[in-house]
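This is your field. Pick holes in the following sequence-structure pair:
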Amino acid sequence: MISPAEVPDRKWVTDITQYAVGDTWLYLSAIKDLCTKVIVAYQMSFRNYTSHAYHDMLPQVGAKISMSRRGNCFDNAAMESFFSHLKTEALYPYDIRNMDEAQRRIVEFIRFYNEERIQLKLKKLTPVEYRRQFTA
């Protein structure tokens, strides 16, 4: 039997992270496919996203929600790992002075992560290259 994480678009994880420039916070919500490691979608905002409507909609589309206590990322390690790479490679090393630059760096990193950054777990392919194997 094939695990849902061995087939694209069957098992996704999502989370929200935040990044500050001065007194302004930028929130990033992203969705990652556990099979291909592709960042399927993302959204940035200056407001946090959590809402009762979103929470209530998940069971209607067959999604299972896991909300562990703060600081416990074990059930969402794949998404936390992505956010860690994003911050340590694209944000923290730079003296980012405005939100436009922060947003640009995030967009560029997600494109780089999906299309150029090889991963050993994906047979030394990028997430996009690995995903293509399932559509060929």
User: Anything to note?
Assistant: Strands lie at 12-21, 24-33, 39-45. Residues 99-115 form the longest helix (17 residues). The CA atoms of residues 31 and 41 lie 5 Å apart. The chain has a mean pLDDT of 89.
